[in-house]
């Protein structure tokens, strides 16, 4: 599973909301969507694609945590800089190294010049635990 992260600030920039970074133009968003569509289509064509979903902005999230053993629910939004899961892609491929190669291609995702995410970009690659999976390090 390839896990993608973002923040409320990222979602705001993509939708053109004002903030402390440049808003993405319609062309910027179209270029990013075209890149992601090609990335997904390449996986479909290679037979490695299983599933992919993007998630709504953190403002639409709820966090459930325990406080002295009692569940406490907090509605979004979270601080603009707090990263949350933004989406995922599941691939079935020839191993962990191949999944890492696939995720590394996302580093070429276009974005407007001068964009500062306020953090380093990254994606996580993790095997999915299934029946009989090794969970030890």
Order of helices and strands: EHHEEEEHE
Number of strands: 6
In percent terms, what proportion of residues is strand? Answer: 15-25%
> How do the strands line up in the largest sheet?
2-5-1-6
**Mean pLDDT reading:** 86
Biggest sheet descriptor? 4 strands, antiparallel
Question: What does the model show?
Answer:
There is one protein chain. The protein is α+β, with helices and mostly antiparallel strands and 137 residues long. The chain has helices at residues 8-14, 26-46, 96-104; strands at residues 2-6, 49-54, 62-67, 70-75, 84-91, 123-125. The strands form 2 sheets. Strands 2-5-1-6 form a 4-stranded antiparallel sheet. Strands 3-4 form a two-stranded antiparallel sheet. A hairpin with a 2-residue loop joins β3 and β4. The protein starts with a strand and ends in a 12-residue tail after the last strand.
């Amino acid at each position: 599973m390839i896990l993608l992260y973002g923040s409320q600030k990222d979602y705001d920039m993509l939708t053109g909301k004002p903030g402390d970074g440049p808003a993405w133009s319609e062309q910027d968003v179209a270029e990013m969507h075209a890149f992601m569509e090609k990335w997904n289509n390449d996986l479909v064509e290679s037979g490695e694609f299983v599933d992919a979903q993007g998630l709504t902005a953190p403002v639409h999230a709820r966090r459930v945590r325990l406080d002295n053993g009692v569940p406490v629910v907090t509605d979004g939004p979270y601080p603009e800089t707090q990263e949350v899961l933004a989406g995922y892609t599941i691939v079935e491929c020839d191993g962990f190294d191949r999944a890492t190669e696939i995720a590394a291609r996302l580093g070429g995702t276009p974005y407007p010049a001068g964009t500062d995410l306020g953090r380093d970009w990254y994606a996580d690659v993790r095997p999915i635990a299934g029946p009989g999976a090794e969970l030890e390090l």
